[in-house]
Amino acid sequence: MPLRIAAIIDRVRSSFFLVPMLFVIAGVLLGELGITIDEAVNDQAGDLPLRLTTTVASARVVLSVVAGATITFASISFSVSLLIISLTSSQYSPRVVHGLFRDPYNKRVIGIVVGTFAYCLVVIRAVRGPLEEGGTPVVPSLSTGLAVALGLIAILSIVAFINHSAHSMDISRILHRITSETIEQAERLWTLNDEAVLAEDAGDPGDLPTDDGFVISLGDTGWIQQLDIDALLEIVEDGGTLQVEINAGRYAMEDMPLCTIWPPPVDPDAAAHRARDAVQIGESRTMQQDVTYGIRQLADVALKALSPGVNDPTTAQDALFHLGSVVHELLIRRPPEAQQTPSGGRVLLLPQRVTHEEVIGLAFDEVRIAAIGQPTVCIYLLGVLHYLLESVTARRLADTSALLRRQAELVVAGSHQAGLLESDRERIEAMYESKFNS
């Protein structure tokens, strides 16, 4: 999928405007259709059942009540949404808020409410009595009945929305959503490691060409959301070398190196322009090509829970379990190899790619430091590390095993520096001995 199309799709999914706007348009069209049908059957209105007929006065009252109620419901919906976003940001992490904007349930409910309001406005505008100016009277009995039905649906939608919003604040749901999205991205971007070798060992970059390469720099600042590697390779001549100096999930600053090309292109300006077009830079970090962003979110939740202002070790434990699931999925998979030969004899070098060492460090370094004063959290952390160690040991990933053991050793060392009671230190040491020295 082209880079810009993928970026537009991601922005649409994160937009709180598009879906309600479509419902408003649908409400307007439905109102016009209803009026047309009412005008067509106006002469046969006497044949309609009594419960489906209405008068000009009652139609205006009903439509006014439904319109007023739905716009009030809409304000409630927006208020609840903003409240949830504010509470989630302050209680857990500002980075988990991004997922709330992508929740289709909230968008549909708000769409139903504002769409009903738009429908009522269109219909009430057309209501006209026999003595009023404008010619033929319009008493939209069927449209008014439909407005009543839509009003009832809007009421039930608001009740369902409040119920859904209350449950969306459940930290386990938030963590599960982040974990599922991250694992889905890992499955898409990293290949399963069936050969029991680390990708970084299998594909370390070789020697660079000895002559000077052409360095292309970035022309903007922001978070690198996506990289079109195929588009970058098209700039390189057959048999040439491309070294990409950035990676998705890093922050880009103007004039920072984007890539280096050997041999230098014939038209440097055109090559630089094409290379910059192959990079999508945005205001916020996304998970489109960044498998570590989910880890960052989960670690932030744990750090927030361990902060003195929140002091919620149970949430930290929950975040650790979800971190273990994500890290496990990444450790059993290969990150992109550091050196590749895609086509035409070209060589692709990715020195900034994410490695297993970075994954482990990002997941546990900060959390481990923040947890040194929480013995129970340290014990759970050792349990997660042991689970990961067993998994990678079974796959004979020796280097990754060493990284996990090092993290466990640092947990024990940190507990010695934290001023804990001797009994608490003994609990941590006993857990370490049983899991890592047995």
Mean pLDDT: 83
The value of Rg in angstroms is 30 Å
Please identify the oligomeric state.
single chain
Strand proportion, as a percent range, falls in 5-15%
- The rough form would be described as flat
Entry keywords:
single chain, 438 residues, alpha+beta, five-stranded mixed beta sheet
What's a concise summary of this model?
With 438 residues, the protein is α+β, with helices and mostly antiparallel strands. The chain has helices spanning 3-14, 18-40, 56-91, 97-101, 104-126, 141-168, 171-189, 199-202, 229-233, 268-277, 292-306, 313-331, 356-370, 375-394, 398-417, 422-436, and strands at 191-192, 214-217, 222-227, 241-244, 251-252, 257-262, 279-282, 333-334, 339-340, 347-349.
How would you sum up this structure, described in words?
With 438 residues, the chain is of the alpha+beta class. The chain has a domain at 14-169. 61% of the residues lie in helices and 8% in strands. The chain has helices at 3-14, 18-40, 56-91, 97-101, 104-126, 141-168, 171-189, 199-202, 229-233, 268-277, 292-306, 313-331, 356-370, 375-394, 398-417, 422-436, and strands spanning 191-192, 214-217, 222-227, 241-244, 251-252, 257-262, 279-282, 333-334, 339-340, 347-349. The strands form three sheets. Strands 2-6-4-10-9 form a five-stranded mixed sheet, with helices on one face. It has a three-stranded antiparallel sheet with strand order 5-3-7. It has a two-stranded antiparallel sheet with strand order 1-8. It is flat, with a radius of gyration of 30 Å.
